[in-house]
Specification:
This protein has 162 residues and is an alpha+beta fold. The chain folds into 2 domains: 84 residues, no CATH class; 53 residues. Helices cover 38% and strands 22% of the residues. It is built from 3 helices and 8 strands. The strands form 2 sheets. Strands 1-2-3-4 form a 4-stranded antiparallel β-sheet, with helices on one face. β5 and β6 form a beta hairpin. The chain is elongated and about 65 Å long. It starts with 20 loop residues before the first strand and ends with a strand.
Length: 162
């Protein structure tokens, strides 16, 4: 990172491998919804068990809630152990997926970014694209505010903002 004589960072894009900033997943966006969903299923068990009319109803409730809870916890552990990350530099923005796959937005295609919605309907999530490139990368469980801040610090700009 370039520094001015006062020791503050000089404006403009950062250059070099040392200037790469890693943006990690937000625990707030990952753990809070999953924790609330797990608590909701446990609450369903606690409220539903005494109100079940038959033994078969109680068994079905316990089995259903146990299976859903185990799947939810295992998925949650998998998300924590295999996080995605975004590497932001002055030359490129690289998304590294859970299995190590990468997607790159290079400055060769432009320097104006836009936050978009990926997916369709109810299951959409934020993504990042270079205006006019037709290529986008997901921002799974990442804070869009933090991604925007790091991109601006690396010298990228956002469409509609100066």
């Amino acid at each position: 990172m370039d520094t001015s004589s006062s020791g503050a960072a000089a404006p403009g894009p950062a250059v070099g491998a040392a200037a790469t900033v890693v943006v990690r997943q937000s625990w707030l966006q990952r753990d809070v919804p999953l924790g609330l969903l797990e608590a909701l299923f446990l609450l369903a068990l606690v409220r539903g068990y005494p109100n079940a009319q038959t033994t078969a109803g109680r068994v079905a409730l316990v089995v259903f809630v146990a299976v859903v809870s185990v799947v939810l916890v295992l998925g949650w552990i998998w998300l924590i152990r295999r996080p995605c990350r975004l590497e932001v530099s002055g030359r490129a923005i690289t998304f590294v997926g859970r299995r190590g796959t990468t997607q790159v937005l290079s400055r060769d295609f432009g320097d104006q970014l836009r936050v978009v919605r990926l997916g369709s309907g109810r299951y959409s999530h934020p993504g990042l694209t270079i205006v006019g490139s037709g290529k986008s990368i997901p921002l799974s469980f990442m804070s869009v505010r933090e991604v925007r801040r790091q991109c601006l610090a690396a010298g990228w700009s956002f469409a509609g903002r100066r």
